[in-house]
């Protein structure tokens, strides 16, 4: 299958070139998150190592991650900035607010005070709890959040947080599924002389541009514009021979927008419950051409659903998200439902209910590894109100993921992320027919195979919050 790298990776090259221009700059950035130190003077921390080396972080959270990894004995002094006076003082003597209504730099939202009474007065007004340096160090973790691949996280970052990512995904399906029975496509069609055709293999490559932005500390928006290249091989019986017919198509898919609202999070920012809503716009093409089907005695849309670029209609999604940190582990869970109305060609994709679970381990602030599982049940598609028998069913997948924070540039950080997975359970719908000679055959779906994704993302936060 021809692999044509499209606009996301052109944008990647532009961003990479921009990063090269700033390599020679002396502007200091936070080693953990990459944000510019001069934009966070009201929360900045100075760390002086035993050997005299001096380092600054954007705030308390990033400082705690460095101290936790290096050990407190590695430092001659650690001086933080008082929230009210803006004066520097010893971090060990400070009182810290965590869980207030303000997120000045990173998560969790630690804010330092030199006076406990002042800290408690701040807590009474803005919420949160007051802790000392030892407790803050004990509750710190390598990352304030992790990002799953196939499900969503409930964590919403601070207002002004911005991310852009370039994604490449590949999916292969190469097994015939009838219910839970899996078979090689050539054996399937070869074992039944009445079988007129059978799907053989489907390859899908997707490149997409993903953008996210936090409107407030509790509201986040996400947009995703995909570009697909699809190829499907079908085995067709021609007399005594079986030949392979190949169809290809490529184009922009449906653009997706998602909205997350976080109504509840724990005081120390280790548990989050979030509401999810989304829509897709019909920017991808839907081929509504029809051919007459003798078995159903009606004209049906001839292009297979999996080869369509889009749904041809605005679709809707809603769900619930939960995330929790347990020391160096993050747990993410989701439940969502997708609704597909009938499009202008009187075709309707099946509604989908989905659930997912992810467990991530963060050995340090640069690396995340984990395992993710998701399952979905999809209703049958409908064409002019008639159910299409060989559509819909239940699938469950498992995937391994990795995330590497590769460099800090331009006041933010670049992350390289990847995942690879396989289906572990499939129960796909099929439909039995009797041909004009009284012989049975079955319309089936493709399953099995493998999927993989790689993503390069850039994350930062705009302005002095």
TrEMBL record:
**One Pfam match:** Phenol_MetA_deg
- This chain belongs to which protein, by name? Uncharacterized protein
Question: What is the originating organism of this protein?
Answer: Desulfatirhabdium butyrativorans
